[in-house]
Structure formats: structure tokens, C-alpha cells
Design goal:
A 7-stranded mixed β-sheet has the order 17-18-19-16-15-20-21, with helices on both faces. The chain has a 6-stranded mixed β-sheet with strand order 12-11-10-13-14-22, with helices on both faces. The radius of gyration is 24 Å and the shape is globular. By secondary structure, it is of the alpha/beta class. Helix 1 runs parallel beside helix 7 and helix 2 packs antiparallel against helix 4. The protein binds NADPH dihydro-nicotinamide-adenine-dinucleotide phosphate. NADPH dihydro-nicotinamide-adenine-dinucleotide phosphate binds next to helix 7 and helix 8. One of its GO terms (molecular function) is betaine-aldehyde dehydrogenase (NAD+) activity. Its EC number is 1.2.1.8. Pathway: Amine and polyamine biosynthesis; betaine biosynthesis via choline pathway; betaine from betaine aldehyde: step 1/1. InterPro entries: Ald_DH/histidinol_DH (IPR016161), Ald_DH_C (IPR016163), Ald_DH_CS_CYS (IPR016160), Ald_DH_CS_GLU (IPR029510), Ald_DH_N (IPR016162), Aldehyde_DH_dom (IPR015590). Keywords: NAD, Oxidoreductase.
């Protein structure tokens, strides 16, 4: 963080260089004049204290953009705007069909601007451009799903009280002002899972994306405005979690905090929200087991095991980072994983031959390195990786080689803790019973994979796994129609699906006595 240079070029975000290839993604300008990046009450606003932050591309460390860095005063102003828009603005009282139609318009605009969004996301995260484009498709689908769900009417229900003179209804109303706090790994995707249902439900919100990846959140404010969302419904503050995220979790005018991020931050947010008894929705980490039984299709299971853990360099909450493999299959299976992991080509977002990118930051790579070192000290066997690449092409980025740690066992820190990097741990099992026990031996419960050709076994094991999502002979797919979230310490509540809309609604029971008469209770 540094003070804005004088004279201030307020809010000009010019993506000038950064990762190899590509002209500037965009310049944030409004009516030809420079435009700041905080979005409060329908206005593009500079940070109150004039701070800015430089965003760097993780693939080569070069500066990508300079954006406004909000503080507590900006967070408070954003909550004021969101509160006013909820209490006095039109959006919460707009018919559901109209709210749904707006979400469908947003989906169309996201599709129109897909490449702009994808390039911005890739420059912020270092993610391959092709993967960012897939993400944009998923994001448009998310808006479309919630648009259809809301437009199709979620009007509540009539309750049969058994009393003919009573007209009783349950209606679903917006929950109020929502603080939406999102991480850097899938910046716009995680944001869409919150913004689409919040807007669809009739809420107003303040969004705080990760300080490292602000670009697509800025673009989204423009898209929501273009789609016709009234002023004050969507508000954006950029900045560090402690400075600008924390006030959004304690402000008594906020009704709900929806957070995606790490377990430690989730615990802090839960505690911060307690004094004002806010509703909370938490999507936290995972330490996701991928169970491979001996009766599986070997080549397919190897292929998916690689994708399960090394996709986006392991920076995926549902990464299949714990391989549990049948003892009978272990040696051949791990040999093949290692052979193929060594061949994964790393590179920047616009390197068409690359199959995986960098880690998000130098600090995050340090964390992954410490995690691997701890595993080795505890007795894990390094089969490949375990270091930075020596390729001069990758020298300036935060790259780390795909790593396989074999002969791991339950007590080890590499089994307990999330690395959020390209690190696969391998454990053996001998029976189905043991496989299930190992898989469930974690504080997390986000996702799990099961590989077997036995339908009976797949159902038996899926039923016993304590995870919010279980994939059988697959890994990572999801659809917006199906709920996503974690059991145990992987979270509270669900995103996506009908439950993902319900998080942003309050149920209200309205009871009307159509023929009231004195009861004479106290006579
Ligand atoms: P963090 O928990 O560090 O941060 C997530 C967000 O919370 C960021 O916007 C961060 O701000 C903000 N934040 C940090 N401290 C506070 C605070 N005290 N009050 C309010 N907000 C705060 O996670 P990462 O960004 O490092 O993301 C990686 C983690 O997220 C992984 O552990 C991963 O498992 C988890 N995750 C879970 C997902 C799921 O669906 N369950 C999906 C994606 C990630 P800033 O970064 O700007 O400081």
C-alpha cells in the first residue's frame, strides 16, 4: 500500500503490462474522465484517505494496475448507502419477476464481455486465460439460474391452520443489507454465487473482494449498473481484510455476512458477527479425500486424480489434495501420477502450452513451502516437486512444481492442514471400512471423490462420507442447480441451488384473522 502520487490520477486503472501478451484489458473511465474504483451509492468514489494499491500479475510480478484502497470510513459509507437503498429504495419492493429479468440481463452482458472479464481475472490471478473463460461461462450460468429461479416465483405458501376464519401465509422477504466477502482463487465466481442470489432476493449489499484480485468486481459493478440495478443496491469497497472487511462484519446496520475464504478468517468473522447476531453464511476450506479402490478404471482414475489436485495449482477449495489409494493399487498408481505430474507444463495465463499457472503471491508460495517442509520432517516421502521450477521463463512468477508426498499418515500436518497449493498427499488403505474412516478423519467436510466400478460400493461409501459434495467416478463438476457447501468446519449454510437463494431471504409468517371477536381471556 502506498499514498497516491500527486497530482492524483484518481482511480485510473490502466492495465499496462503485467503478464505476457495482450493489450490493456480496459481503462476505468467514465464519460472520458478518470474514474475511481470504489462504488458507493451509485457513484464511483476515491478512497477517503487517498490510499491506492498496486496489483501485480502473479505470473511475472509486474504491475498490472493501481486501484483505490478503502478504509473503515469507506466501508461505513458503503453500508450507509446499502442501508438507505434497502430501507427506502425501490429494489426490495420490486416484483420478483422483474428482479429475475435483471439477473438474466446481467448474464447476457457477461457473455457479451466475456473476454474482457476473463483477461482481467487472468491478470489478477495468473490463471490460464482459457480457464478464466470457462469460469465466465459458469458465472453467466449462475446469474441465469438465479434469474430463472427468482422469476419463476418464490412467493411463499398458504398454511392450512385448520381454522377457516384464518388466512395464513408464509412469505419470503429479502434479509436486508449483506456484506459479501470473497477470496482470490475464483474471484468473480465466488462473488457471483453471492451477488446473484442477493440481488435476486431483493437485498442490497457491500462487496469486499480479496485485496489481490479486485478487477472483475469493479467490472461487475459496471455491468450491474448497465443492466439497470438502482443506485445503492450494489456497493464495492476494495482493500485489506482487517481494515475494510472487518468493519463490514461488525456494523450493526448489516444483517447478513456471507464469506468465502480460509477457516481461520471464518472463525474470526463468526465471532465478530456474534454481538449483533448477524446471519452468517460461511464457505471455508477443505481437505478433500479422493478414494481410489482397486476395482477402478486405472487410467481414468489417474487422469482425474491429477486434475483433482493440480487444477489452478491446487488453489481450489475442493481440490482433491488427499489421495487415498487401495494398497493393492498403490505402487503402480502413484508411479503413474508422479510420471504425469512431472510433465505438467507451467506458464503464464497467455502461454497456450501451459497447463497450470503460478500461486497467487510470494507469501502464499512461502506458506506452501513451509507446509511441504513440515510434511517431510514428519516422514512423508517426496516423490516429485517440492521446489520452485528452475526454468528461467518462470523466474519472476510465484511458481511451484506439482508435488507428490507419499507414505503419509493421519497424524501428519500435511494430512490435517490445507496447503491450497499443488501438493498431493498419498495414504494407503486396505479395506473399505478403513478408507471411509481415513476420509472422515478431518475437521473439514467440503467434498470427496470415490473411484470404483461397483455401483453398490459407490453408494455405500458416498452415504458414509461426511462431505457437502461427493463425486463418484468424477471430480470437481458442479451445477448452479445443486447446493454447494461444507459439513463440519468447512462452513455454515449452502450456496447455489434453492438453499443458496434461501440464505438471502427471511421467512415471514403472516396471520390474518378474517373474523376477529373478543376472546374474553381475562374475564
Ligand atoms: P482469507 O480467509 O484470507 O480471505 C478471504 C477474504 O476475507 C478476503 O477478501 C480477505 O481480505 C477477507 N478477510 C481477511 N480477514 C478478514 C477479517 N478479519 N474480516 C473480514 N474479512 C477478512 O482467504 P484467502 O483469500 O486466502 O482464500 C483462500 C482460502 O479460502 C482457502 O483457505 C480456501 O480453502 C478458502 N476458500 C474456500 C472456498 C469454498 O467454497 N469453501 C472457495 C474459495 C476459497 P484480503 O484478502 O483482501 O485481505
Amino acid at each position: 500500500m502506498r499514498a497516491r502520487p500527486t497530482p492524483p490520477t484518481l482511480g485510473t486503472v490502466t492495465v499496462t503490462k503485467g503478464c505476457p501478451a495482450g493489450p490493456p484489458v480496459h481503462e476505468h473511465r467514465h464519460g472520458g474522465s478518470p474514474m475511481p474504483e470504489l462504488f458507493i451509492g451509485g457513484q464511483w468514489t476515491a478512497a477517503a484517505d487517498g490510499e491506492v494499491r498496486e496489483i501485480r500479475c502473479p505470473a511475472d510480478g509486474t504491475p498490472v494496475a493501481t486501484v483505490d484502497e478503502a478504509g473503515a470510513a469507506d466501508a461505513a459509507a458503503a453500508v450507509t448507502a446499502a442501508r438507505a437503498a434497502f430501507d427506502d429504495g425501490p429494489w426490495p419492493r420490486t416484483p420478483a419477476a422483474e428482479r429475475g429479468r435483471l439477473l438474466l440481463r446481467v448474464a447476457d452482458l457477461l457473455e457479451r464481455d466475456k473476454d474482457t472479464y476473463a483477461r482481467a481475472e487472468s491478470l489478477d490471478t495468473g490463471k490460464r486465460f482459457v480457464e478464466s473463460r470457462y469460469d465466465m461461462d459458469d458465472i453467466a450460468n449462475c446469474f441465469r439460474y438465479f434469474g430463472d429461479l427468482v422469476a419463476s416465483g418464490n412467493d411463499g405458501r398458504v398454511v392450512d391452520t385448520g381454522q377457516p376464519e384464518v388466512d395464513s401465509r408464509v412469505v419470503y422477504e429479502p434479509v436486508g443489507v449483506c456484506s459479501l466477502i470473497t477470496p482470490w482463487n475464483y474471484p468473480l465466481l465466488q462473488t457471483a454465487w453471492k451477488v446473484a442470489p442477493a440481488v435476486g432476493a431483493g437485498d442490497t449489499f457491500v462487496l469486499k473482494p480479496s485485496e489481490l484480485t479486485p478487477h472483475t468486481a469493479i467490472l461487475l459493478m459496471r455491468t450491474l449498473t448497465e443492466a439497470g440495478l438502482p443506485d445503492g443496491v450494489a456497493n464495492l469497497v476494495l482493500g485489506a481484510g482487517g481494515a475494510v472487511g472487518a468493519p463490514l462484519t461488525t456494523d450493526e446496520r448489516v444483517d447478513l455476512v456471507s464469506f468465502t475464504g480460509g477457516l481461520a478468517t471464518g472463525r474470526r468473522i463468526m465471532a465478530a458477527a456474534a454481538p449483533t447476531v448477524k446471519k452468517i453464511a460461511l464457505e471455508l476450506g477443505g481437505k478433500n479425500p479422493n478414494l481410489v479402490f482397486a476395482d477402478t478404471d486405472f487410467d481414468t482414475a489417474v487422469d482425474y486424480a491429477l486434475m483433482a489436485v493440480f487444477l489452478h495449482s491446487g488453489q481450489v477449495c475442493s481440490a482433491g489434495a488427499r489421495l487415498l489409494v487401495d494398497d493393492e493399487l498403490h505402487d503402480d498408481f502413484v508411479d503413474e501420477i508422479v510420471r504425469r505430474a512431472r510433465a505438467i507444463r507451467l506458464g503464464g495465463p497467455f502461454d497456450e502450452d501451459a497447463r497450470s499457472g503460478p500461486l497467487i503471491s510470494a507469501e502464499h508460495r512461502d506458506k506452501v513451502e513451509k507446509y511441504v517442509a513440515a510434511g517431510l520432517a514428519e516422514g512423508a516421502v517426496l516423490r516429485c516437486g517440492g521446489e520452485r521450477p528452475d526454468d528461467p521463463r518462470l523466474r519472476d512468477g510465484f511458481f511451484y512444481l506439482p508435488t507428490v508426498l507419499d507414505e503419509c499418515s493421519p497424524g501428519m500436518s500435511v494430512i490435517r492442514d490445507e496447503s491450497f497449493g499443488p501438493v498431493l498427499t498419498v495414504e494407503r488403505f486396505r479395506t473399505e471400512e478403513e478408507a471411509v474412516a481415513l476420509a472422515n478423519d478431518t475437521v473439514y467436510g467440503l467434498a470427496a471423490g470415490v473411484w470404483t466400478q461397483s455401483v453398490e460400493r459407490s453408494h455405500r461409501v458416498a452415504a458414509r462420507l461426511r462431505a457437502g459434495t461427493v463425486w463418484i467416478n468424477d471430480f470437481h463438476p458442479y451445477v448452479p442447480q445443486a447446493e454447494w457447501g461444507g459439513m463440519k468446519q468447512s462452513g455454515v449454510g449452502r450456496e447455489l441451488g434453492p438453499a443458496g437463494l434461501a440464505e438471502y431471504q427471511e421467512a415471514k409468517h403472516i396471520w390474518r384473522n378474517t373474523a376477529p371477536r373478543p376472546q374474553r381471556w381475562f374475564e
